[in-house]
Amino acid sequence: MSKKEHGLQNIFTYEIDGNDCLVKVCANWDQFAEQNEAKNLKHPGIQGKNIFLQIENNETRQIYHELFKIVREQRKHVHFNYRCDSPDTRRLMEMNLLPLEDGHILCCSKMVRTEQRKPFSILDSTLKRSSQYIIMCGWCKDVKTSAGWLQIEQAIHELDYFDVAIPPKISHGICSKCMESFGVMIDNLKAAVHAQKR
Ligand SMILES: [Zn+2]
User: Please, what is the Cα angle at 94 between 182 and 169, to 5 degrees?
Assistant: First the structure.
């Protein structure tokens, strides 16, 4: 782990109510929001905000809607992995969605593994951005290129404006691989419920 990573808390939690609004966040929330490129959700003023206002991508919103529905209606604990990289570190995270009373959900995100790598300016949220933009998968951090969705380390060879002093803006989407795996996961969760009911 790098020095910067050292002081990092490994678990971040927040709670949403039955209307998907944030009601409680952990003490280290600001750090979490920053890592997830959700700076406008920093303290103060986040209480009561709808979590879906933060999600720019329709498919990603749809996946969260489906998962929250399963957690609330079936009172099921749902978990999945995602990536939350810093410029010089690959970070594998695990999100746990736990049902609480009254349709509330506890969202608990924990760091599973980190790996150091060469730093990439594209992931440095403090840098100024050019007018160009790239599409990055919000779940696995792969980048869309003319050669398909590639890991950041490979995408750099395809996109020459990528790792520069003024990097392009990032627009978040979902890659075909994540789309498929979440589709399978949601279908399986729904099928398990139907099997239980029978
Ligand atoms: Zn992906």
Answer: 75
Q: Which tens digit of pLDDT belongs to each residue from 131-152?
A: 988 999 999 999 999 999 999 8
> 189 C-alpha to center of ligand 1: Å?
20
What's the mean per-residue pLDDT of the chain?
A: 86
How far does the centroid of ligand 1 lie from the alpha carbon of residue 154, in Å? 14
Domain ranges of the chain: 3-197
Q: Does domain 3-197 have CATH number 3.40.50.1820?
A: no
Which residues are close to ligand 1, an ion, with C-beta < 5 A?
A: 137, 139-140, 142, 175, 178
- CA distances 79 to 45, 96, 98, 116, Å, are 28, 4, 9, 25
User: Is the pLDDT reported for residue 115 higher than 80?
Assistant: yes
CA of 135 to the centre of ligand 1 (A): 11
Residue with tokens 């690959």: 90
Q: What is the pLDDT of residues 84-103, one digit of tens each?
A: 888 899 999 999 999 999 99
134 C-alpha to ligand 1 centroid (Å): 14
* Distance in Å, CA 48 to ligand 1 centroid: 29
